[in-house]
């Protein structure tokens, strides 16, 4: 899976950081040290890490991911990363 989407609330810019959904690559989630959680009332799971987005971006860069876009949506910051596959 060559794409990763991470996000955080502006007021939580020091973490936690949402690093994936229930369909994310388990190897990448394990590398990031992410924990899979389901919020009360949701019928889907998400992966979170306690690290701020900057550290997550640094870790993902080390394994070949590059930011392709970033935006703010309301009070949320979102980064989309891509990894070239051979």
TrEMBL record:
One of its GO terms (molecular function) is GTP cyclohydrolase binding. Its main location: cytoplasm. It is found in: Cytoplasm, Cytosol; Nucleus membrane. Gene3D superfamilies: GTP cyclohydrolase I feedback regulatory protein GFRP. One of its GO terms (cellular component) is cytosol. InterPro entries: GFRP_sf, GTP_CycHdrlase_I_reg. Keywords: Cytoplasm, Membrane, Nucleus. Belongs to the GFRP family. PANTHER family: GTP CYCLOHYDROLASE 1 FEEDBACK REGULATORY PROTEIN (PTHR16852). This is GTP cyclohydrolase 1 feedback regulatory protein. It comes from Mastacembelus armatus.
């Amino acid at each position: 899976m060559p794409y990763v989407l991470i996000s955080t609330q502006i007021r939580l810019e020091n973490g936690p950081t949402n690093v994936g959904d229930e369909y994310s690559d388990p190897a990448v989630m394990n590398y990031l040290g992410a924990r899979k959680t389901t919020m009360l009332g949701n019928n889907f799971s998400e992966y979170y890490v306690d690290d701020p987005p900057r550290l997550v971006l640094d870790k993902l860069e080390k394994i070949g991911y590059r930011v392709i876009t970033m935006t703010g949506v309301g009070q949320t910051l979102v980064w989309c990363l891509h990894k070239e596959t051979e």
